[in-house]
Every structure is written in C-alpha cells, then in structure tokens.
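Example record used in the benchmark description.
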Amino acid sequence: MLLIIALGIILFVIYIYNSLISMRNRVNNSWAQIDVQLKRRFDLIPNLVDSVKGYMKHERGTLTEITNARTSMVKAQTVGEKAKADNMLSGALKSLFAVAENYPDLKASQNFMMLQEELSGTESKIAYARQFYNDAVMEYNIKIQIFPNNLLVGILGFKEEALFEVKDAKQRDVVKVEF
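Model output (structure tokens):
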C-alpha cells in the first residue's frame, strides 16, 4: 500500500514538472515572437529617421528622442527593461508621426509611405505577440501559484515570469501611423 502511495506521489510530481516545463517553453517561445517583432521595428527605425531628416530639419528633438529610445532597446535585457524601452520607442514614434502632419512633402514621400505601412504592420504584430506572451505568462504563473503545485515549484526550480506591461497610461494608445 505504501508503495502505491509513493508511486502515486512520484507520478504526480512528474506530471507537475512536465506541465510546468511545457508552459515555461510556451512562455519562452512567445517571448521570442515579441523579440522578433521588436527587432523588425528596430531595423525600420534608421530608415525612417533617414527618410524624415531632410524634411524635418527643425525637429531635432523628436529625432533624438527616437534614437535614444532605440538605443535603450539595444541595452534592455529583462522583460521589464524591454517593456520600458518599447514604451519609450512607441511614445517617440507617436511624436514623430504627430509632427510629420506638419510636413505635406514628407507625407507624400513614397519611401516614407512605405516605411509607415511597414511600421503599422509591425506595431500590430507587436501588439499581438505581446498579448500572446502575456496570456502564456498568466497561465504559467497561475499553474505555479495554485495548490499543491506551489509546494513543489521552489524545489523544482520554477519561478514566476513578468508580464510585458505598459506602465504609463499615455503609452496605452496604439501608435497611429496613418496620414
């Protein structure tokens, strides 16, 4: 009888461990999807800045803000740091597109229009990837927190993951890239 109970406990621990591994891998995969889209947007920024430099000579502050936000993205290591850098970059891009409204020649530029379209698609993909990541993290964190799993997670080496959050209420607005 004691052997059956011990075997049941061992099987239960194996089940919990395997399900947590599966969920952690889903979190890691969803983070990789965010990272891919952030990299894509990151790669678009220099072309965007180059295309507007000639038109917006008096808007150095906006362009500097974008460059600084892009640099912050490179330096970011953790989910929280990347989220903060992403929020900075989104805000800087909002400023750029708001200022671009004052430059009709820029709005008519084929290169700018193409970059605008690429950026708009990328922003949508980032939002979707962020939602997918946060859903995976939420499921994983719930699995860790519920009883009796919470008794085993420390022993098995699992810890909660951070959500990719927008802290600043102004940053919650989607970057509008339509002209």
